[in-house]
Design a protein that fits this description.
single chain, alpha+beta, Outer Surface Protein A, domain 3, 2 domains, four-stranded antiparallel beta sheet, 37% strand
């Protein structure tokens, strides 16, 4: 059994939820998120708490119990992240290392000079916003944890850090192990 299932998901003030069939909707001060549930999971709702349980009605063989616990723990985390997202939001910070590498905002669009012959322009998807507090720093913000992480990873892929010099885009605080170059 997943250890997360022993705990309930607390619903703070100002957050409402609605369960319709296999769809859960969480609405809060920052926005609204939806998640489709699998029939392997059932939710027991209280006034200020949600309990995620394994749906043992769909068990066919004994080996299905382990799979049920994994799915229930995963959906517990997804629903908990939805509640955190509509109340606090999520952010990923990136830093750019390299001479001449920089980022700036043009309207809502992120424009980066990364050593290519052309600037890299990235339009934010719905629910995501960019901040550039410094020319070598980018902050990706949003309420959907998965989407924030995916957009930050897509930005990082434009210039993956080079292991010999360390130049490129990395997450803030990420340590890049550099190799020693060829000696002549």
């Amino acid at each position: 059994m997943s250890r997360l299932l022993k705990h309930s998901i607390k619903i703070p003030a100002g957050v409402s939820y609605k369960i319709e069939g296999n769809l859960i909707t969480v609405k809060g001060p920052k926005g609204e998120l939806k998640q489709e549930l699998l029939p392997l999971v059932k939710i027991e709702a209280d006034e200020k708490e949600l309990w995620v349980k394994s749906n043992e009605d769909v068990v066919i063989r004994k080996s299905d119990y382990k799979r049920l616990a994994k799915y229930a723990g995963t959906f517990w985390s997804l629903i908990n992240n939805m509640v955190l997202g509509v109340t606090q939001g999520f952010a990923k910070e990136l830093e750019i290392v390299g001479v001449g590498y920089r980022a700036q905002l043009q309207g809502k669009k992120l424009v980066m000079n990364l050593g290519y012959a052309h600037p890299v322009e990235i339009d934010p998807p719905a629910g995501i916003e960019f901040e550039v507090p410094a020319p070598q720093a980018i902050v990706v913000k949003g309420i959907d944890k998965y989407l924030v992480g995916q957009v930050a990873a897509n930005i990082k892929r434009w210039r993956i850090p080079i292991v010999y010099s360390g130049k490129g885009i990395r997450y803030k605080g990420e340590a890049i192990r550099t190799k020693v170059g060829k000696k002549v």
